[in-house]
Amino acid sequence: MVGQLLGDAATPGGLPLAIATYSYQGAPVLTMVSTPAWGDAQVSALDDDEVRRIRNDFPVLEQEINGKPLVYLDSGATSQNPRSVLEAEQEFYEQRNSAVHRGAHHLAVEATDSFEDARATVARFVGVQDDELIWTANATAGLNLLAYSFSNASVGQAGAEAERFALKRGDEVLVTEMEHHANLIPWQELCRRTGATLKYIPLDDAGALRLEEASRLMTARTRILAFTHTSNVLGNINPVDVLVQMAREVGALVVLDACQSAPHLPLDFKALDVDFAVFSGHKMLGPTGIGAVYGRSELLNAMPPFLTGGSMITTVTMEQARYLPAPQRFEAGTQPISQAVALAAAVNYLSETGMQRVALREAELGQRLVTGLSAIQGVRVLGPEPGEERTGLAAFDVAGVHAHDVGQYLDDLGIAVRVGHHCAQPLHRRLGLTASTRASTYLYTTSEEVDLLVEAVAKIRPYFGVTASGATS
Amino acid sequence: MSGLDSLYQQLILEHSKIRSGGDLAELPAAAAGSVGTAGSVGTAGSVGTAGSVGTGQSHQLNPICGDEITLRLSVGTAGDGQAVTEIHWNGDGCAISMASASILSEMAPGMSPASLRRTIDHFRELMRSRGKLEADEELLQDAAALAGVAKYPARVKCAMLAWVAAEDALRQAEANQGVSEAL
Ligand SMILES: Cc1ncc(COP(=O)(O)O)c(C=O)c1O
């Protein structure tokens, strides 16, 4: 079961968008694509003129830094908001602000409708049913929700139906060596609490998952497989279908970190066939303070809650409580209502633009980045080589110049990038680094901005007096 | 001078490569039998005419960028008073943090503990001033070249790293010296 290749078809820029990057059981495995629609030859990437029009919707991009136009290449950390998102949040507060699911008055009804409409919009965006989408503060909160719900099941809190989530000594949780700390530490802690063992799928020297190892590590002891769809450092796309198939064979639950894919690729969690997935609103044109967990309906309704309190119960006595079905079961307390409404406006913006077109555009920008940067002497781009499948980001090391100094040099030119370990210390350690510089694009990034970055990076080693060999002069 | 050039002055770029005092990894580990808190190493080395010597060692980490330094400093008797006799460090980090450690290592030997403390205090004040304070060049010597860092709040921690380590190591060195004197 191998996903359709996202185009032997060349992009308008002439670069192939994807080639096989994995081999598994001796045969090459074509890299996973998120939906068959990716291969739709009718759809073209956003072009530069459209991107220029899109930029007009983003007020924050209009400013200057140090007298130079802002070049925002840090959308992988947090994205910017179009006016429609800002207006949706303001309009909610001006017209309908009220508690949801709690009152019979007019505003309460309107607020509840907006809140639930938002859920339906976001659920549709990722291909799931409304009642399968739980609001959280962000992806980190979502992953902790899962880890703590499993933990509650492990202490026998929810009876027989929650058995399937219970971990004990001898059980294993499997992650990968490329995970963001948000998809690593909650599992470390879950294992510590339950006595289970954490294992990880190692990477090869190029940063790709070693699938042979994955299949060796996946055993009857494996209860949970948690991995990222696309790495926030490498920009690769992991073969979800292959990993899900391995997990199914051993009966493990699959948790997908979709933080870096939900904003950038057309997504359908049902088609990907994962059990759970998480993402964050602020990385996909939405506000901070909102994210979501997807869970298969039958799983969510069998799983004990994490946070408990108001708004998630049916009956409460002084001794105990009964819980509502999902999603309310997992939404204790007052929810991020205006943020949900604004996130729905964000995904509407993305849908109207067209996620396939966004993804194709970013694949072009990703190739432009990796091609330009790897041509510079002393610059090593992490992750897939030029021509191999990559999302619209590139993290790189400049030999002899620390990432902080690289970032400072670029900031002086108004170019905003991320420097450091990007919350992936084990991954950096595996690649022999402590830090790197990451440029990440989005649907408002122009080709000129990528070129400006590449030109600037080419001047960094000379500026810091580093000679061609990598030694310092 | 552009903002960037005032941050990365020639002197700073040179020090970031020279890394004076950055030879701790090549030295033997400080003697066992350490006293004081974790991370501190007390020795009564360099016996002889200099009188009692105390050594302290401090490890500092900037979790934001991963800059790291381990700095060892010794205090002994010099003339009528006390002075820093040795300073060595080992670290990894950006040009600012490495240059700052190198400059400090060239300045500190021969300074009395009191004057090293005064210098550290002024340097910290300068760094936290967001560029509003003038550097006391007599006190700071080459470290005055780091004054430009004050305008970049995100980099102040980088510049301070070695100085915070020195302050901590100095405190331990003096404490350890007291111990060896009492013996
Ligand atoms: C792959 C990945 N996972 C998880 C996260 C955590 O997201 P948040 O900080 O919004 O919870 C991020 C964000 O940096 C990410 O890139």
Please give a structural write-up.
By secondary structure, chain A is of the alpha/beta class. Chain A contains 15 helices and 19 strands. Chain A has helices at 48-55, 83-95, 106-125, 139-154, 185-194, 211-217, 240-250, 269-272, 297-300, 337-353, 355-374, 403-412, 425-430, 447-458, 460-463, and strands spanning 22-24, 27-29, 64-65, 68-69, 71-72, 133-136, 172-176, 197-201, 222-228, 253-257, 276-280, 291-295, 313-316, 321-323, 379-381, 393-398, 415-416, 418-420, 436-440. In chain A, the strands form 6 sheets. Chain A has a 7-stranded mixed β-sheet. A 4-stranded antiparallel β-sheet of chain A has the order 15-16-19-18. A two-stranded antiparallel ribbon of chain A has the order 1-2. In chain A, a hairpin with a 2-residue loop joins strand 3 and strand 4 (68-69). In chain A, helix 2 packs antiparallel against helix 10 (337-353). Chain B has 183 residues and is of the alpha+beta class. Chain B has one domain: Sufe protein. Chain: A (Alpha-Beta Complex). In chain B, 42% of the residues lie in helices and 18% in strands. Chain B has helices at 3-7, 10-18, 95-107, 113-128, 137-140, 153-182; strands at 54-62, 67-78, 81-92. A 3-stranded antiparallel β-sheet of chain B has the order 1-2-3. In chain B, 45% of the residues are buried. The model of chain B is unreliable at 32-50 (pLDDT under 50). At the A-B interface, helix 12 of A face helix 1 of B. Pyridoxal-5'-phosphate (PLP) binds next to helix 4 of chain A.
Write the layout of secondary structure elements.
The complex is a heterodimer of chains A (473) and B (183).
Chain A: E1 22-24, E2 27-29, H1 48-55, E3 64-65, E4 68-69, E5 71-72, H2 83-95, H3 106-125, E6 133-136, H4 139-154, E7 172-176, H5 185-194, E8 197-201, H6 211-217, E9 222-228, H7 240-250, E10 253-257, H8 269-272, E11 276-280, E12 291-295, H9 297-300, E13 313-316, E14 321-323, H10 337-353, H11 355-374, E15 379-381, E16 393-398, H12 403-412, E17 415-416, E18 418-420, H13 425-430, E19 436-440, H14 447-458, H15 460-463
Parallel strand pairs in A: 5-17, 7-8, 7-9, 9-10, 10-11
Antiparallel strand pairs in A: 1-2, 3-4, 6-12, 11-12, 13-14, 15-16, 16-19, 18-19
Chain B: H1 3-7, H2 10-18, E1 54-62, E2 67-78, E3 81-92, H3 95-107, H4 113-128, H5 137-140, H6 153-182
Antiparallel strand pairs in B: 1-2, 2-3
The structure holds pyridoxal-5'-phosphate.
